[in-house]
TrEMBL record:
It catalyses: lipid IVA (E. coli) + CMP-3-deoxy-beta-D-manno-octulosonate = alpha-Kdo-(2->6)-lipid IVA (E. coli) + CMP + H(+). It is found in: Cell envelope; Cell membrane. GO terms for molecular function: Kdo transferase activity. It holds the Pfam family Glycos_transf_N. This is 3-deoxy-D-manno-octulosonic acid transferase. Residues 287-397 form the Glycosyl transferase family domain. It is an enzyme of class 2 (transferase). Its main location: other. It comes from the Bacteria. Pathway: Bacterial outer membrane biogenesis; LPS core biosynthesis.
């Protein structure tokens, strides 16, 4: 408790600023102010008996959790799965992924103060919990330990940069990691870094994202989008971040032939209008996916302003440039593109997905470029070489298939936790 005291005091002092930031974000995305009470541990819906709790902070973690959630529903057919999030887009993603599954509940995880954490645990009474990737909340995990709710850190990844940040608070980090009942790390390097910070019971389980199966309805949607586009070559800029779109649009305007189409999908939906304005400012005729209209012959940019359709966008594209990697954001998931068989071009900044990016390069499933300009040129070169493009696509599918199995290994760890809890 003494180790967590400064952290808790900082949270108390920062709470007014956190609320101001929430209100500021709600100016662009009003959904941030919905279900506000949940962020303080107050829940209106009645919790069912037998809840398995999975925390997935936002969109990427929620998509990564999909195969695990489906496996949990199959393994414990009499239980419900509660998905908690911190962002409206994460919550919306869970609605999209599990719209036909009544046993999947969703809520916001409260802010990390002990009173809120205990209120959350009292309301839902989870049998055990799963926290995705690197979401470490000291007070929440302490409350879980006190209430004998075992928690597993699943799909855990820890870059060298993140490990250095956690190492600045060695006592708090070690205490938090030791509160976990199990850790399933993506790679041996992740496991080593976690162990060096004080973690125990670390097992290398692999990356859950390899177990995501491209949904046939989305693949069919991708085929329909492609039919609407026609024979034009399609470059996909996937999950782009602020500052990257301008660079990619400039490179596209300079180098792409007139018949090429740029399918541009920003990472954050609140930026759709901003990105549309960037294209218009460069004189590039733009259409929106949400308009669901016939493709104009003069359209140069199709803005992917929809949620939950990334597999469809990959299926409609000839080559994908992965966002988050052109400026130092750390990259985005490239596994979905590989699974669909879309050749991938990545930038220099992939530290959040270092192992996956390097393995994909070695497997011939991805090409790396030094900046957005070089990336656009590499993608355009692939467009003119069908044989090479087919070779990279086949390598991507093989790469995605070879690394599957993390879900089964993670469920095995959770099964052992549930048995120990019941004993």
């Amino acid at each position: 408790m003494l180790t967590r005291l400064p952290y808790t005091l900082l949270w108390i002092l920062a709470l007014p600023l956190v609320l101001l930031r929430l209100a500021w974000r709600a100016r662009r995305q009003p959904a941030y102010l919905r279900h506000l009470g949940e962020r303080f541990g107050r829940y209106r819906t009645r919790a069912p008996v037998g809840v398995i709790w999975v925390h997935a902070v936002s969109v990427g973690e929620t998509r990564a959790a999909e195969p695990l959630v489906r496996a949990l529903l199959a393994e414990w057919p009499e239980h419900s799965v509660l998905l908690t999030h911190m962002t409206p887009t994460g919550r919306d993603t869970s609605k999209s992924l599990f719209r036909d599954e009544p046993r999947v509940l969703r809520a916001y995880l409260p802010y990390d103060l002990g009173c809120f954490a205990h209120a959350f645990l009292r309301h839902f009474r989870p049998l055990f919990g799963v926290v995705m990737e690197t979401e470490l909340w000291p007070n929440l995990l302490a409350a879980c330990k006190r209430r004998r709710v075992p928690v597993m850190l699943a799909n855990a990844r820890l870059s060298e940069r993140s490990a250095r940040r956690y190492a600045r608070l060695p006592a708090l980090t070690a205490l938090t990691l030791k509160a976990l009942a199990a850790i399933g790390a993506q790679t041996a390097a992740d496991a080593t870094r976690l162990t060096q910070l004080g973690a125990r019971r670390v097992t290398v389980t692999g990356n859950l994202k390899f177990d995501i199966t491209p949904p046939e309805p989305l693949l069919a949607l991708g085929r329909r989008l492609r039919e609407r586009i026609g024979a034009r070559p399609v470059l996909l800029a996937a999950s782009t971040r602020e500052g990257e779109e301008a660079q990619l649009l400039d490179a596209f305007a300079r180098h792409a032939p007139a018949e090429a189409l740029l399918l541009l999908v920003p990472r954050h939906p609140q930026r759709f209008d901003e990105v549309a304005a960037l294209a218009s400012a460069r004189g590039l005729a733009l259409q929106r996916r949400s308009a669901d209209a016939a493709m104009g012959a003069g359209t140069r940019v199709l803005l992917g302003d929809s949620m939950g359709e990334m597999f469809a966008y990959y299926a409609a594209a000839d080559v994908a440039l992965i966002g988050g990697s052109w400026l130092p954001f750390g990259g985005q998931n490239l596994i979905e593109a590989c699974a669909v068989g879309t050749p991938v071009v990545i930038g220099p900044h992939t530290f959040n997905f270092q192992a996956v990016a390097e393995d994909a390069e070695r497997a011939g499933a991805a090409m790396r470029a030094q900046d957005a300009e070089a990336g656009m040129r590499a993608a355009l070169t692939l467009l003119t070489d069908p044989a090479r493009r087919a070779e990279v696509a086949a390598a991507g599918r093989a790469f995605a298939t070879t690394h599957q199995g993390a879900t089964a290994r993670s469920v095995a760890l959770l099964r052992a936790l549930s048995v120990r809890r019941e004993a």
